[in-house]
Amino acid sequence: MSKIAVIVTNYVEDIEYTSPVEALQAAGHEVVTIENEANNTFTGKNGGEFKADLGIADANPEDFDGLLVPGGFSPDILRADDRYVEFTRHFFLTNKAIFSICHGPQIFIQTGLTKGRRMTAYTSVVPDLYYAGAIVEDKPVVIDENLVTSRTPDDLDAFNKAIVETLN
What we know:
About 30% of the residues lie in helices and about 25% in strands. It is of the alpha/beta class. It has one domain: Class I glutamine amidotransferase (GATase) domain (Rossmann fold), CATH 3.40.50.880. A hairpin with a 2-residue loop joins strand 10 (about 140-145) and strand 11 (about 145-150).
């Protein structure tokens, strides 16, 4: 099965982290949570406490088959850190699986690789993607090759189904 990296930090939307991770694990995939430091505890927007498996300085994107970027305020924080941007850029450049929901695609903009890619995101992120050259669609899930994006927690069932199917 596949090994999936999850990049995340404080203020992640709890359910947008836990639900896809559970779906991936239930399908037999290995999920590795990456934060600033290994074993760091980070806190979700809704008060959940989670633990990182690996620190970004020790994370090699070559070791992973896919990337998950949950939403909340976490992606906005991560996109200000070049280590996470470069990590994300690797998945675009190698055409590996990339999954993101809600505010998650914010970090995609920093990679400079959104032009011409079909995707969706939370309402307030849509104009940013559009101005960065993405082709934005207002659907629960948008699939563009190995890039799977979704809008909100209301779309999690469809998103989780699509990410698992993409890896099969």
